[in-house]
């Protein structure tokens, strides 16, 4: 009882992206990468804000030192200063530094509205501070011309005593100034009011509309003697991009063109060959043998090897299918003759039972025909089993030609087997299959009148070249092209099945060997190639 054929497993049905979609997504990602980079520049903008704050701290510290010196040397002792602070802790000799680190972050909760306008003070600044401001005004202007920052010097009440504008007005109502008048450094981000129209590109980053403000207190004799109020707009990368917009667009084009080239390269080397191979697969599945031709484009070397391997497999399967179809036709023809003969003889014998008309000799003749045809069917059946085993060998191992020759001499005692050459080289074939090959050749020699079988062997790289000849009738030129076909025989009346050489060729094919008919002075000669067991295939 044969085992039920299981259905072929099916690939689970689910959505899978095709190669074109993957390539498209990769290319779009490459194109969008510069745009995503613009958003990542926010991080860089935050760094620019802190760098601006750090620069304002350094510049304010220098001006505060000058301010401190001016107060100490020019402001009379009776002039009232600002808030008195607790005595400062004594500085260590080995650590005199008191750094102020930038801490501003570009976040919603830290951005204040635009700076409010200066107000009229409750009382004007002391004349001593007015004079101090006049002396330092030149220094402020010179510093601002170089650093592009805005500076204001404030007295202990928050009244502007030096600066390009707002001199005599009060800034004490500003949060950062109020903090500084309490003796603490303060820095804030405020929305910037620009006198000029901003480019549209500025809207991408919030940092372009911000301005950094710092207020540094000047401490004299543990009292707030004034404030250095500074402001500056952070440097902006988008302004540079806008100014260099022509080059920026050229850079974008320089990104798009290579991306299109990459897409074209993917299409020519991967997508197009793969689609053609899939189309060929469908055509081959429908029986179109013209689809077995090579692809128009192979793209990469790996895909070329893949397509060649696939098409070669398809060719072999097609040849196998054609062989099975032809083989089935031959089997049907070979079995039909003896079956028809047996049927005819049996019908005559059955009719003779109802109406006896045959003598014993006639009955024996028909019975002998039935036995002969039955024996032929048995031989054909055995040969078919041998052929099936030859095309799907299960025996593996190694053997020497010398051992197989000895077995042939024992099995075919009437045949003079003469062997020479390199017979002790191990071959990559089992002893049983090697014996089947030589037995079929020896049987063919005897059936065609051969009395001597000569065997010679020599090594050539990873193969053993074996020449086998006999002194029989030989093979006529008209039959040379058909001798390896299944069921082809010229000795059918003598029990030949025409399967011997087909079995030999099938066995050698499955073991990586070959057989061919070669010219000879007498009889028939064959050249066999058999892989050597201890050598890697070349």
Task: Outline the structure in words.
This protein has 10 helices and 13 strands. With 538 residues, it is α+β, with helices and mostly antiparallel strands. It has a 6-stranded mixed sheet. Strands 8-10-11-13-12 form a 5-stranded mixed sheet. It has a two-stranded antiparallel sheet with strand order 7-9. A hairpin with a 2-residue loop joins β5 and β6. α1 packs antiparallel against α2 and α9 runs antiparallel to α10 (500-510). It starts with 18 loop residues before the first helix and ends in a 7-residue tail after the last strand.
Alpha plus pi helix count: 10
Order of helices and strands: HEHEEHEEEHHHHEHEEHEEHEE
Distance between the termini: 44 Å
Uncertain segments: 1-5, 199-207
Determine the mean pLDDT: 78
List the helices and strands and how they pair.
Layout: H1 19-74, E1 111-112, H2 127-147, E2 150-154, E3 160-162, H3 175-181, E4 186-191, E5 210-220, E6 223-232, H4 237-243, H5 245-285, H6 301-354, H7 360-391, E7 399-400, H8 401-411, E8 416-421, E9 426-427, H9 431-447, E10 452-460, E11 463-470, H10 500-510, E12 514-518, E13 525-531
Helix pairs in contact: 1-2, 1-5, 6-7, 7-10, 8-9, 9-10
């Amino acid at each position: 009882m044969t085992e039920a054929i299981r259905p072929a497993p099916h690939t689970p049905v689910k959505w899978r992206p095709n190669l074109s979609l993957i390539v498209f997504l990769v290319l779009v990602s490459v194109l969008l990468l510069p745009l995503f980079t613009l958003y990542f520049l926010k991080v860089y903008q935050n760094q620019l804000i802190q760098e601006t704050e750090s620069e304002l701290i350094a510049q304010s510290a220098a001006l505060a030192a000058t301010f401190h010196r001016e107060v100490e040397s020019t402001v009379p002792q009776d002039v009232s200063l600002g808030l008195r602070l607790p005595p400062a802790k004594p500085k260590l000799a080995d650590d005199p530094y008191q750094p102020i680190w930038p801490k501003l972050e570009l976040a919603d909760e830290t951005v204040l509205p635009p700076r409010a306008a200066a107000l009229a003070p409750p009382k004007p600044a002391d004349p001593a501070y007015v004079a101090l401001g006049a002396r330092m005004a030149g220094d402020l202007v010179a510093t601002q011309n170089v650093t592009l920052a805005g500076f204001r010097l404030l007295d202990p009440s928050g009244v502007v005593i030096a600066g390009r504008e707002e001199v005599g007005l009060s800034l004490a109502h500003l949060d950062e100034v109020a903090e500084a008048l309490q003796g603490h450094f303060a820095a804030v981000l405020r929305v910037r009011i620009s006198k000029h129209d901003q480019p549209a590109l500025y809207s991408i980053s919030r940092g372009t509309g911000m301005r950094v403000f710092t207020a540094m207190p000047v401490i004299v004799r543990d009292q707030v003697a004034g404030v250095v109020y500074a402001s500056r707009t952070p440097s902006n990368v988008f302004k540079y991009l806008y100014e260099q917009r022509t080059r920026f667009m050229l850079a974008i084009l320089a990104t798009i063109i290579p991306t299109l080239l990459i897409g074209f390269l993917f299409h020519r080397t991967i997508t197009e060959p793969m689609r053609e191979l899939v189309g060929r697969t469908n055509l081959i599945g429908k029986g179109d043998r013209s689809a077995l031709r090579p692809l128009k484009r192979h793209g990469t070397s790996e895909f070329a090897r893949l397509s060649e391997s696939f098409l070669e497999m398809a060719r072999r399967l097609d040849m196998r299918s054609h062989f099975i179809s032809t083989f089935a036709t031959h089997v049907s023809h070979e079995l039909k003759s003896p079956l028809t003969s047996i049927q005819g003889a049996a019908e005559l014998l059955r009719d003779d039972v109802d109406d006896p008309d045959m003598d014993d000799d006639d009955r024996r003749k028909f019975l002998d025909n039935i036995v002969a045809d039955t024996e032929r069917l048995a031989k054909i059946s055995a040969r078919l089993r041998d052929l099936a085993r030859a095309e799907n060998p299960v025996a593996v191992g190694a053997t020497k030609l010398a051992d197989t020759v000895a077995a042939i001499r024992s099995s075919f005692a009437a045949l003079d087997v003469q062997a020479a050459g390199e017979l002790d080289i191990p071959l990559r074939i089992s002893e049983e299959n090697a014996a089947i090959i030589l037995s079929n050749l020896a049987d063919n020699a005897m059936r065609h009148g051969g009395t001597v079988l000569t065997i010679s062997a020599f090594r050539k790289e990873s193969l053993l070249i074996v020449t086998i000849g006999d002194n029989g009738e030989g093979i006529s030129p008209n039959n040379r092209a058909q001798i390896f076909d299944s069921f082809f025989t010229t000795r059918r009346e003598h029990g030949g099945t025409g399967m011997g050489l087909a079995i030999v060729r099938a066995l050698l094919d499955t073991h990586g060997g070959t057989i061919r008919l070669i010219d000879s002075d007498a009889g028939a000669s064959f050249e066999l190639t058999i892989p050597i067991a201890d050598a890697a295939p070349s």
